Amino acid sequence: MKIVIRLSIAVILISVFSSSLTAGVYVENIEKDFSGMSGGQEMTSKIFIEKDRVRMEIPVMMGKMVVMIFRADKNLFWNIDTGNNTYYEMTEADLKKMKAQVDRMMEMMKEQMKNMPSDHKEMMEKMMGDKMDMGEGTKPVYTKKESGIKIGSWNTTHYIGTENGEKTEEVWACELEDIGIDIEELDALNKMGEFFAAMGSDEDFMEIKTKKDVKPGEFSGVPIKEIQFSDGKKMSETLVRKIEKRSFDSSLFELPSGVKKMENPMTQQQGMMPGQNDW
């Protein structure tokens, strides 16, 4: 009788524990930033992907970490500052509001630039680049360069990404079937891209494409290595160290207890826009 009771308790405990675990995909990246003072220092970022949610852990300065959680089921995005134990929330409506604010600022800036001397205007246009036409920028066009390049344990295809004829990116991508992952398992990344499309960007934010879905000028598969360029200079490098299927505790995709909600600093800029009280 005692054996039966113990077995019953074990089954119940296993069932309770398993119910809090969800199947997903884990990605671990090595990031190098060459644009600032870090001088290419390596940092490890982690991505946890489930069917309708994504968690990203990104290290910042002095050992602190920013956690970002996208919840497609709630249609919102949380940005958590683990150092200060605070977070802010971003909805699709917030993104549309931010886009409208940025558009107004850009229009005001363009109006002011009309009265600038030509050399000042040219300098401003160079500084702002494609930010002068946010939401109307060109998408990178990718050209296949070479196949069968081994990076870690993955066979990749090398692509060059250009915008207006200038190299902006190099990508080494591995097809999903070679990794052993189905596109449905990464669907949350595509949902996150659709969410941020409210900002009006033409870029396919973190979108993963299969061979049958890819269009001319795009690439298929998962980027195993990426190098970003600006004005011909190497700005950043991302290298995938791990891609594997894992079971996650559902609490990973929830707000940690005790965090304090703050106002979204991006939407707070509305009262500080140029052309109002301070211009």
Question: What's the short story on this structure?
Answer:
This protein has 279 residues and is an alpha+beta fold. The protein is 23% helix and 38% strand. Strands 7-8-9-10-11-1-2-3-4-5-6-12 form a twelve-stranded mixed β-sheet.
Could you outline the blueprint of secondary structure elements for this entry?
Blueprint: H1 2-19, E1 21-33, E2 42-50, E3 53-59, E4 65-71, E5 76-81, E6 86-91, H2 92-113, H3 118-128, E7 141-151, E8 154-163, E9 166-174, H4 176-179, H5 187-196, E10 222-230, E11 233-249, E12 260-261
Parallel strand pairs: 6-12
Antiparallel strand pairs: 1-2, 1-11, 2-3, 3-4, 4-5, 5-6, 7-8, 8-9, 9-10, 10-11
Could you walk me through the main structural features you see in this protein, from its secondary elements to its overall organization?
The protein is α+β, with helices and mostly antiparallel strands and 279 residues long. It has one domain: Lipoprotein localisation LolA/LolB/LppX (outer membrane lipoprotein receptor (LolB), chain A), CATH 2.50.20. The protein is 23% helix and 38% strand. The chain is built from 5 helices and 12 strands. The protein has a 12-stranded mixed sheet with strand order 7-8-9-10-11-1-2-3-4-5-6-12. β2 and β3 form a beta hairpin. The termini are far apart.
